[in-house]
Amino acid sequence: MLTKILVTILVILGAIVYLRRGRGHKVNRIAEMANAQKSPLFSRVIIYTMIAVSMLASAGYWGWSWYDDNTVVEVTITSPIEAMTDSYKVRKKDIEAQRITTVDGIQIRLSNQERLTVKTLVTE
Prior knowledge:
It comes from Shewanella frigidimarina (strain NCIMB 400). It is built from three helices and five strands; from the N terminus they run αααβββββ.
């Protein structure tokens, strides 16, 4: 707790010193704007490239999550009470905490005692 208070005081003191001193050397605004207008094409290319890369990354992530959610797996339900085991084909997105929905559309409600085993479906 004492460390948090000391860090907070140091941050406040640092902010006060920074605000009183200013940013350092003063730059002429006209010279600064002239330097900014020298290469607008370069900055636009960088901005558009970053936008394109972020859109491609987002589309790739969305596509991969859609593909992974629609992957069909084999779910084996083991019930210790009834001493039975059943296997079903289920999409990953249809596995919930208390219920699964099979590929055929059958909804199976699960109890707290049942154990699920999920295996990838072997395709040959």
